[in-house]
Specification:
Number of strands: 17
Number of domains: 1
CATH class: Mainly Beta
Oligomer: single chain
Strand content: 35-45%
Helix content: under 10%
């Protein structure tokens, strides 16, 4: 067993009672909304931290483990979504959390969530999870504002997937999804990125159809073949020691709603 899988296995065992061995992701119910209308922003907990390579829900994140869950507008203004969360599961470990939000201003919005916690059972491991998604708001759905560069600006997560194309206006079947993986603000090379369409189960090990490795600039690209939500996932276990922990495991997700036709690619 190589170092990656040893750290990964230890992480899964030590975090089992708390569930954050799994990855979190956030997804809006739509990626385009009129200003003044409500959008629903969901916080999911999936199988990916245990290497289940799909889009399925595993459990539900305990509210006390949610470090941040927020919306960030194009000017950097943040709105805390934790007080707005509703539990949509019947049982404690079923369903997911959802928050209702009404954008007042036009522009591109980032939905973001983080978890950063030391798990002390067994070998103490620091688990960091970050999740992002996007939607755009405008006065009319026919004339939505187009951001050309704002989406390339990192929001400061310890580990973060940053889109290199407009995550709403420049996505569609046949259009490459381009992302940059950052760790502590710097490009991270040689890390596997999984691009998971909803409803698809990736092969064990490395699936060449849906996985890429970041280059020296931290970049990876994937061309979607179907229109649906795509969950983009990166894991990075490291031999890192700090106060109260002996190892660390970082994970970042980015959720994009890919349409069958790119809204602006023909312009």
């Amino acid at each position: 067993m190589n170092r990656y899988w040893l750290v990964f296995a230890l992480l899964a065992l030590s975090l089992a009672p708390f569930a954050p061995a799994h990855d979190t992701w956030v997804q809006p119910n739509t990626n385009a909304v009129r200003t003044g209308d409500a959008i629903h922003l969901d916080l999911m907990l999936g199988n990916h931290g245990n290497d289940h390579r799909d889009f399925k829900l595993a459990s539900k994140l305990s509210p006390e483990l949610i470090q941040t869950f927020e919306v960030i507008d194009s000017r950097g203004k943040k709105v805390d979504l934790k007080p707005r969360m509703h539990d949509l599961g019947y049982a404690p470990k079923e369903g997911y959390h959802s928050a209702r939000f009404i954008p007042a201003d036009s522009g591109l919005y980032t939905v973001a969530q983080t978890l950063d916690k030391v798990m002390a059972k067994g070998t103490p491991i620091r688990a960091f999870r970050s999740a992002k998604s996007y939607f755009v708001a405008g006065e009319s759905l026919d004339k939505l504002p187009l951001e050309k560069e704002a989406f390339k600006k990192p929001i400061g997560h310890r580990m973060e997937l940053v889109p290199q194309m407009n995550p709403v206006a420049s996505v569609g079947v046949g259009q490459p999804i381009k992302v940059k993986l950052l760790f502590n603000g710097k490009p991270l090379a040689g890390v596997k990125i999984s691009f998971i369409p909803r409803g698809t189960v990736l092969k064990e090990g490395t699936d060449p159809d849906y996985e890429r490795t970041t280059d020296k600039e931290g970049l990876a690209s994937f061309t979607p073949k179907i229109g649906t939500y795509h969950l983009i996932v990166a894991h990075y276990p490291v031999d890192e020691k700090g106060e109260g922990y002996e190892r660390a495991h970082y994970a970042a997700t980015l959720t994009l709603l890919i349409p069958e036709k790119c809204p602006c690619c023909a312009d």
